[in-house]
Amino acid sequence: MHYKFLSLRRSVVLIVSTCILLLGTLPAFAAERVVLKYSVFRESLSVEELSTFAQTGEVSRSLRVNLALARQNPKVVRQYLTEPVKVNLLLLDKVLNSSIGNVILDEISKVIHTPSRRADRQALRAALILSAKQDERVSVIEIIKNYPTSEVEVDGDRLESAYRQLRRLQLGLQDLLNF
């Protein structure tokens, strides 16, 4: 009986993983707006606007004002948004569907989350897998761009924390590969 349950669970995980991997060939539902929060300041930007800043360093007027009010260095914010973390896609999928993965997802979702704070874990898991699918690299800006809700909230004060969690995930995956 216990063996049948484990076999069924593995089959379900394999099917779900395959579906997620195949989603890249279909038009994806991704975030269009990002609410960037710094203490009492909240700014709603298009994901495209934040992505342009991340890619080129060009700061829009509204983002410039928000970063200035929050006393944030745009270069540092840009670094945390764009610094890639190399991951193995299949191993990432397995880890994110484990209890350890849930802890990691919960930590990152303290920074990047849905407006309602519901299904944060699932949304973040999907965004991470979609981000890693193309080149087996993940960055915070890719997670935001691939977030499967129309709006995503980002706690700018804790952006470094999200990046550090991604680095820890990378190191953990490397340890598993070397095991």
Provide an overview of this structure:
The chain has 179 residues and is of the alpha+beta class. The protein is built from nine helices and six strands. It has a four-stranded mixed sheet. Strands 3-5 form a two-stranded antiparallel ribbon. A hairpin with a 2-residue loop joins β1 and β2. α5 runs antiparallel to α7. The radius of gyration is 17 Å and the shape is globular. The protein starts with a helix and ends with a helix. About 9% of the residues have low confidence.
Short description:
This protein has helices at residues 2-22, 47-56, 61-69, 74-82, 89-96, 99-108, 120-135, 140-146, 159-178, and strands spanning 33-38, 41-46, 85-86, 112-113, 137-138, 151-155. With 179 residues, the chain is of the alpha+beta class. A hairpin with a 2-residue loop joins strand 1 (33-38) and strand 2 (41-46).
